[in-house]
Write a structure and sequence with these properties.
By secondary structure, the chain is mostly beta strands. It has helices spanning 5-16, 43-52, 183-187, 338-347, and strands at 59-65, 68-70, 76-78, 83-90, 100-101, 103-108, 123-126, 129-132, 139-144, 147-153, 160-173, 197-198, 201-202, 215-223, 227-231, 259-260, 267-268, 273-278, 281-286, 297-303, 306-313, 333-336.
């Protein structure tokens, strides 16, 4: 986001109470002597900054998958391939001052578990061209009204491939025993993984307490704009913008049907969808959503003489993820502040 000099000038004039004449009889001090204005932020943006600013320790999102085994004596061990780590992000200053580039890193939350091998291969159709998303993510944060907007960039560092709008940021302080924390912290985040007890063995010290200043942030976000993610329809698997099509012998998308998807196993008829122009290409979009936590729709599109596949997330769709305990998908994400994360690291027994 660019901040134009004329905007600063207008704000200065308004603060100075300047009229058309520019006289000094009012006694108003010169603009240069006025204290600089502080951009106003909403309550949601304040809550976001209370964690997200690098000076406040950043946001920490728990990611985990734990497998267990026990010996004949009942001793517990964590299975190979298990992981328990955080996706860490922060911004250098308030986005009220303009667009902020997010710093992204990963760190293990368990002293005995290394980070898994992490990689990304998300690709998107933008105005008829396939772009690969940067990995780790390269988001830029701006403030949109009272909300927080995150724009994720392609590997070229400039093309926006997807955008999220955060509409709710609620902060909850943590104190006392970790075991006595709000239920949603265990059911709505991967912290719930460590509450499992295996053959009477606890995965964390149940007498451990939250360190002073511990907080978690509950975030609700939604997609901005129709977002078409694309990928290989059949083998071979690829990376980058050159993806494997479903067919190179069919000229128009109608000619692909009936078609059985190797991804979701469903057989589609042309009447199961609607043909539209989407992301700069002519595409068939299924009428019924896929059976996924995030509502999305199967897409087949024609491009450069071939037919390709993808999935569409429609504008305004809330971000949803599978609930840790099963059941209905949850429409919020939970982030820990750095103090809460250090409390968790100190409490885990693996």
């Amino acid at each position: 986001m660019k901040i134009y000099p004329c905007t600063v000038t207008l704000l200065t004039l308004a603060l100075a109470g300047c009229g058309g004449g520019g006289g000094s009889s009012s006694g108003t001090p010169a603009p240069s002597t006025l204290a600089p204005s502080v951009p106003a932020v909403s309550d949601a943006q304040k809550n976001y900054e209370s964690l997200a600013l690098s000076s406040n320790g950043g946001l920490h999102y728990l990611v985990g998958s734990l497998g267990f085994s026990t010996s004949s004596s009942g001793a517990l061990s964590i299975s190979s391939g298990s992981y328990f780590y955080t996706d860490d992000s922060s911004i250098p200053q308030s986005a009220a001052n303009g667009a902020q580039t997010v710093s992204v890193a990963f760190s293990t939350a368990a002293k005995t578990l290394a980070l898994p091998t992490l990689s990304g291969n998300a690709r998107y159709m933008i105005n008829g061209t396939v772009y690969a998303a940067a990995y780790p993510d390269q988001p830029q944060v701006t403030y949109s009204g009272a909300n927080v907007q995150e724009s994720y960039l392609a590997t070229d560092g400039k093309t926006v491939v997807r955008t999220f709008l955060g509409t709710s940021y609620s902060s909850t302080p943590l104190s006392g025993l970790i075991s006595a924390s709000p239920a949603e912290l265990f059911t709505g985040s991967m912290l719930g993984l460590i509450t499992n007890t295996i053959n009477g063995n606890s995965l964390y010290n149940q007498q451990a307490s939250w360190q002073t200043g511990s907080t978690y942030l509950k975030v609700v976000r939604q997609y901005v704009g129709d977002t078409l993610s694309v990928g290989d329809c059949v083998a071979p698997a690829t990376t980058g913008p050159n993806i494997t099509p479903c067919s190179t012998t069919v000229a128009t998308v109608e000619g692909l049907f009936p078609h059985t998807s190797t991804t979701d196993g469903l057989t589609y008829q042309v009447g199961d969808g609607t043909i539209v122009t989407l992301a700069g290409v002519r595409a068939w979009v299924a009428k019924a959503p896929l059976n996924t936590a995030l509502p999305q729709y199967r897409v087949y599109y024609q491009n450069n003489g071939a037919i390709y596949s993808g999935t569409l997330v429609k504008d305004g769709t809330p971000l949803q993820i599978p609930a840790l305990g099963g059941g209905a998908a949850q429409s919020f994400y939970i982030f820990l502040n750095n103090t809460a994360l250090q409390s968790v690291k100190s409490a885990v027994n693996f």
